[in-house]
Amino acid sequence: MFLLTMATRRVFLSLFLLLQLILLVSLSSALRPAPSRQQCGGPADIVVTQQPTGRVVEGKAEYAVAVQNRCRGCAQSAVVLRCFGLSSVEPVDTAAIRPLDGDGGEDCVIAGGRTLPPPTPPAPAPPRCGSPTHG
């Protein structure tokens, strides 16, 4: 009977140590920082802005349109926007924007589907020559 009790104690001790090890591994992985990979929000990170240029072409106001990827650290490609036929009185650079379904398509591909780079951080101002280094 004593051997059974010792065996039972060993089993419980082994299980206890195993559970402690599992708990320790779980805690160490939970405390580890998350990977620093930036997650892009897809369409939410693509921003389209338009501003009037002040020019009037054939009686219509001219606008400058910019498409930007605002996701830091993530490039996005195959960007398609709703453009409803891309009406313009001046020639449009088809390398920048092109209707998908010919001239009357509702959707346009941006930059030929190539990658839109992530935004670049502003460069620090270069030091000015002749500025004093001590106050």
From TrEMBL:
Keywords: Signal. Residues 112-135 are annotated as: Disordered. Residues 1-30 form the signal peptide. One of its GO terms (biological process) is cell fate determination. Pfam families: TPD1_C (PF24068). Residues 116-129 have a biased composition (Pro residues). PANTHER family: BETA-1,3-N-ACETYLGLUCOSAMINYLTRANSFERASE FAMILY PROTEIN, PROTEIN TAPETUM DETERMINANT 1-LIKE-RELATED. This is Uncharacterized protein. It comes from Ananas comosus var. bracteatus.
